[in-house]
Amino acid sequence: MGLVVAPVVKGKEKEWKKWVANSKKDLEDLNKRYGLTRHDVWEVESPDGTLAVVLHEGPGADSFMQKIASSNNKTDLLFKESLAKFHGMDLNAPPPGPMPVKLN
Fold first, then answer.
1. Alpha-carbon distance 90 to 21, whole Å?
2. Is the distance from CB of 90 to CB of 9 less than 8 angstroms?
3. How many Å apart are CA 33 and CA 91, to the nearest integer?
4. Alpha helix locations (H) across the chain?
5. I need a surface site. Which of 22, 64, 76, 82 has the fewest CB within 10 A?
6. Is 14 left (phi over 0), alpha (psi -120 to 50) or beta?
7. Domains of the chain
8. Which of 37, 14, 25 is nearest to 78 (CA)?
9. At what angle do helices 24-34 and 74-87 cross, to 10 degrees?
10. Which residues contact 40 (CB under 8 A, 6 or more apart)?
């Protein structure tokens, strides 16, 4: 299982929600190609702004983000562009700071 928590870029919240709502077909394609059985997105309001909480489940969940990062598939490239636009995420560069630590 993979869990991603990412801020939504301030001022892009409405556009992000529209993108999520219109991405169902692309997500079905990603899920099928990468072995995901579940790919859910939640919106969370925090004192610092909107957060996206994304859950990936299935046999391909542990390697999903790494495989997307190295893919040249048209759908994957659009997905990566959207992650950069709405979350400031560059999948070709490691995230700043330490990796999350599982506590239980």
1. 22
2. no
3. 18
4. 13-22, 24-34, 64-70, 74-87
5. 22
6. alpha
7. 2-87 (3.30.70)
8. 25
9. 120
10. 54, 55
Per-residue pLDDT for 30 more than 80?
Answer: yes
Phi/psi at 102 (nearest 5 deg)? -75, 130
On whether the CB atoms of residues 39 and 56 are closer than 8 A, the answer is: yes
Q: Are 94 and 13 in contact (CB under 8 A)?
A: no
pLDDT digits (tens, 9 = 90+) for 15-25: 999 999 999 88
* Cβ partners under 8 Å of residue 48, min gap 6: 7
Across 19-47, average pLDDT: 92
Q: Average pLDDT for residues 23-29, to the nearest whole number? A: 88
pLDDT at 15: 97
- How would you list the strands of the sheet with 2-7, edge to edge? 2-7, 49-57, 38-46
**Whether the Cβ atoms of residue 32 and residue 75 lie closer than 8 Å to each other:** no
pLDDT at 27: 87
